[in-house]
Amino acid sequence: MDKESPTKVKGHPPAYPGPSDSAFPPPTSKAAAPPTGPLAPAYNTPRILHIYRDGLTHRHMTITDMDKSHPLYRMDQSSGSVFSSKPHMTISQASSPRTTIGTATFHSWSRTIDLEFHGSAVPFESEGIFTRAYAYASPAFGERLRWECDGIWGADLVLVNARKEWIARFDASLFSMSKTGKIHVVHGGITGAALDEIVVSGCAMMQHERRRRSSSAGAGGGVGGGGDGGGGD
Asked: Which of 111-115, 117-121, 152-156 has the lowest mean pLDDT?
């Protein structure tokens, strides 16, 4: 792998090196397939996915490929409360039929978020009360991965492995009315279940941080922090 490619991602901290080729799992069929031809990303360069809101809330979103027009995933939030056993967030393939690739369920009584990747339950666990990082045992990568907050405003996120090598990054579009942000994937060769996993866990972390900020704003200002409403905000 070209070791210089991670530095092409705008604003990425140099403290996180890119992983070696051996760290990447092989592609699987359980995925929103990447485009072919001119839309196919180069294997050894970063791939950028774009996240757009459907309307003014964060309840429904479309995740596109690098061209910004080829939908790969749909993210939908339920209007149920945190006391509901149903998933608060569902990620599905954008193509028909809309196959669910993952879910996230949040709890008021636990800091752990319940993730599912292709039907397999994986706990997404807080790394401690004094950190905003969450980690999970990755089925696709075969090691423990950790999402942590990054950037000046703390709205950006970075996914790293135990060696602090970055796998993906979420950059928030704080001042856009229609775009939530971008997911930078370190390597164009990450496809299949591995890419699904990055999208599901990244969206879960993004929604968790939005819920946290909404709750903090409500507690500080005396106004309910429901945001977009429902359990997923």
From this structure: 152-156
pLDDT above 90: residue 169: yes
Residues 225, 176: Cα–Cα separation, whole Å: 21
pTM for the whole structure: 0.75
Looking at residue 187, what is its pLDDT?
82
In residues, how long is the chain?
Answer: 233
Check pLDDT > 80 for residue 157.
Answer: yes
Alpha carbon distances (Å) from 103 to 39, 191, 201: 28, 19, 9
Q: Output the DSSP codes for 166-203.
A: EEEEEEE-TT-SSEEEEEEES-TT--HHHHHHHHHHHH
Say if CB 162 and CB 148 are below 8 A apart.
no
**Distances from the Cα of 188 to the Cα of 21, 75, 121, 166, 181, angstroms:** 11, 22, 27, 14, 19
Give the sign of the dihedral formed by CA 165, CA 124, CA 93, CA 141: positive
In contact, 193 and 201? CB cutoff 8 Å: no
Residue 202 CA to chain centroid, in angstroms?
2
